Structure formats: structure tokens, C-alpha cells
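Q: A small favour: would you put together sequence and C-alpha cells for a protein?
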Amino acid sequence: MNQQQQDLASAVMERDRSRSRIRMLTVTVGAASLAAAGVVAYNLPGPAHTTAVSGTTTTPAAQPSAANQQPGDDGGGDGSGGAVTVPSGTFGQAPAQATSGGS
């Protein structure tokens, strides 16, 4: 009977050691994953609204609500200085589309 108790105690101790190893492995892998995520986040580009000047950012201008607009008002202010920027290589207006006459 004494041998069975020793075997049982030995099995319980081995189980506890195995659990401890698994727990340590889980913590190590979790910490490594967190560090890797930090490296990835650090290397991602910044937000699109930052400027080239160090330490300053621009925020989009507040737009008037639709409830305050008059008919025909595009919300661009008084119409005396709202320049439209068009990327190079494109035209300011899309080409006209041909309509199908059907059959």
C-alpha cells in the first residue's frame, strides 16, 4: 500500500510541475505576442490628417448642417474663395457617358 501512495504522490507532483511549465509557457508566448503587436503598431504609418510640420496636426473644418442650408447651397461658404484641388493627371470633370437607346 505504501508503494501506491508514493506513486500517487509522485504523479500529483509531476502534474503540478507540468501545469507550472504550461503556465510559464503561456505567459511567455503572451508577452512575446504583445511585444510583436507593439512593434507592428509602432511601424504603421500615422493618421492621414497629420502634416509634415513636426508636432502639428490639422483637423477637418466643421461643415454646416443640412438643416441650416438654403436650397441650392452646397455648404461651401459665400462662394468667393472655395478652391477645388484636383489631383494631377486627372480632369476636373468626368467624361460624359453615352446613353443606351435600347432596342
